UniProtKB/TrEMBL annotation:
Belongs to the bacterial solute-binding protein 2 family. Pfam families: Peripla_BP_4. Keywords: Signal. Residues 38-291 form the Periplasmic binding protein domain. It comes from Arsenicibacter rosenii. GO terms for molecular function: carbohydrate binding. It is found in: Cell envelope. GO terms for cellular component: cell envelope. This is D-ribose ABC transporter substrate-binding protein. Transmembrane segments: none annotated. InterPro entries: Peripla_BP_I (IPR028082), SBP_2_dom (IPR025997).
Amino acid sequence: MPLFFGQKRIAFFGLIFVLLLSACQQQESGTGKPKKMAVIVSTLNNPWFVVLAETAAAEAKALGYEAKIFDSQNNSSLEADHFENVIVSGFEAILLNPTDSDGSIVNVRKAKAAGVPVFCMDREVNASDAATSQILSDNYSGCVAIGEYFVQTLNRSGKYVEILGLVGDNNTWNRSKGFHSVVDRYPGLKMVAQQSADFDRNKAMDVMESMLQAQPDIDAVFCGNDAMALGAYQALVAAGKDKSVGVFGFDGADDVMTSIGERKIRATGLQSPQTMAKTAAQYGDAYLKGKRDFAQRVPVAVELITQQNISDYQTPAN
């Protein structure tokens, strides 16, 4: 009897071993392998993109995936290296904030060829056959609203300058075009300088300083993002012109929202990096569960924030 029961015990544990081995083999192949999503962002040197990246990673984790953030440092070559790493490392989906609307296409197509879907966040690539879906702020319409408020604030007359973002990013031109679609209709408003500062705060401060030397009597500056708006404002403070020159930004970054409440920055366009990031992660999850019919471009609304309505967007102090 003891031998008989011992044989049954051996058989029982043998069966358990076989089942565990089978489960491990399934995990290493097909649908059972570890699930991972990569979050590749243009830069983590901007707090807005930090929110975008961290929200995307957090949502992916909440959906049951491992998630890792890769910083491209606004460098297309580094972005290409990240794609190579992600594909070789077995990530199943990529949540991407591209470095360049044209330059990033080859990376997205490489992932597609490897069977890895790519979901763009905030920035787009100039192709409709590369990314699975692109979740984008409605930059043009958002800057139409800023342009209308700009015209109203300057009473249809005055000199202004524009600080552009990255010249290789569609967001730069969509924002500029939306703004000019309104402002250019008013002959009393004259743009006396336009220069890129790459969406960078320190570069924008330097650009604003140079502009002020050439054009000391401007009335306003329109900046393609909030980081540049803060840099421009710093330069205006140093020149003693922060009260006479209105600064208009775009993004809805926390620092600028605070500055609007303090009546420093005049206005911004409030994007929602959280909405775009969460949507991208959810789309990635849906794709990996079998969904294939995604809209190529999904617009996310932008809200105009001014000194008049900022209180509606701020949490009252306790």
